[in-house]
Write a structure and sequence with these properties.
Elements: H1 5-13, H2 23-34, H3 42-51, H4 61-71, E1 77-83, H5 87-98, H6 103-107, E2 128-132, H7 133-140, E3 150-155, E4 158-168, E5 173-176, H8 178-183, E6 191-198
Parallel strand pairs: 1-5, 2-4
Antiparallel strand pairs: 1-6, 2-5, 3-4, 3-6
Helix pairs in contact: 1-3, 2-7
Length: 199
């Protein structure tokens, strides 16, 4: 039986060519992306040739889109979009902290407005999201590797591009900060169906 394109890519990356794209395959690809120099990466060129995109050795949106399509998730992930770091969230967090409770206790009732990766999420200028750790690891190999990665979120035909700046504890959800909510015409608090994907 002929090898699938994913198996061929895994073989190039030196991971087990089982045709199942998991954290190890993603981590190996990320490693190649991270060591790309000015003249491009020959390993990435091989992968790009398999994916049928320009084999320039630089991993960009076209290469990623081709891989997403190969993996069958070009349509994105259906999820529920919720709000975080909105003014009510921040007030609830501060009120909880004033009662002498821990950050962990207060994150259950509100948000401090600062993402896990250090960015200010409680603002209306830069769209940001929080995604579940499992989604981060499945795509990037670790939570830290997912920091600041771009995603698109679509609600009722409107799409916003945002970056991953925080982590959410509920599977099947993606949290939108005030800027992302504003761009989509949503008023917090909300729980609405959405489709999101890595860019």
């Amino acid at each position: 039986m002929a090898k699938s394109d994913i198996e061929k890519i895994q073989q190039i990356l030196g991971t087990e060519p089982d045709g199942i794209w998991g954290p190890k395959s993603q981590a190996a690809l990320n490693g190649e992306i991270n060591k790309t120099a000015d003249e491009g990466n020959p390993t990435l060129q091989e992968i790009q040739t398999i994916l049928g995109v320009e084999a320039d050795g630089f991993w960009g949106p076209e290469s990623q889109a081709a891989l997403n399509e190969e993996l069958g998730n070009s349509e994105g992930f259906s999820a529920t979009a919720s709000s975080f770091a909105d003014p009510a969230d921040v007030v609830a967090f501060k009120k909880c902290k004033a009662q002498g409770k821990t950050d962990q206790q207060c994150f259950k009732v509100g948000d401090n407005g600062i993402g896990q990766f250090g960015k200010i999420t409680a603002q209306e200028d830069t769209p940001m999201v929080a995604v579940h750790a499992d989604d981060m690891k499945a795509r990037w190999g670790s939570v830290n590797a997912a920091a600041h990665r771009p995603v698109t979120v679509t609600v009722k035909g409107n799409t916003v591009q945002a970056t991953v700046e925080d982590r959410i504890g509920v599977k099947g959800r993606i949290d939108l900060n005030p800027a992302a909510a504003k761009a989509l015409g949503l008023t917090p608090p909300f729980l609405v169906p959405c489709v999101w994907n890595w860019v």
